[in-house]
Amino acid sequence: MSVAKVTEIIAASDKSFEDAVNKGIKRASKTLKNVVGAWVQDQQVTVKNGKVSEYRVNLKVTYILKN
Fold it and tell me: Using CA atoms, how far apart are residues 17 and 15, in angstroms rounded to an integer?
């Protein structure tokens, strides 16, 4: 039986929410081994001069612990 752990990370992009998710997963996978999934807990944007300047996602990343 596998045991999984969930960790929370925040990732940002100046392009889109999807790009922020991809950056977050890519970075998490460098440190966390056996990443098997993630879900977006929250999305936010920052605004400058009436325009979206940054997309942010709060991710819950799931990974399997080794025995």
Answer: 7
**What are the structural domains of the chain?**
3-65 (3.30.1660.10)
Structural contact between residues 5 and 44, judged by C-beta atoms closer than 8 angstroms: no
Q: Which residues, including other chains, have CB under 8 Å from residue 8's CB and lie 6 or more apart?
A: 41, 58, 59, 60, 61
Question: Residue 43: beta bridge partners?
Answer: 57
User: What single letter denotes the amino acid at residue 59?
Assistant: L
User: 């936010």: which residue's tokens?
Assistant: 44
Tallying the residues shown for the chain, one arrives at 67
| pTM of this structure | 0.89
Q: Does pLDDT of 2 surpass 90?
A: no
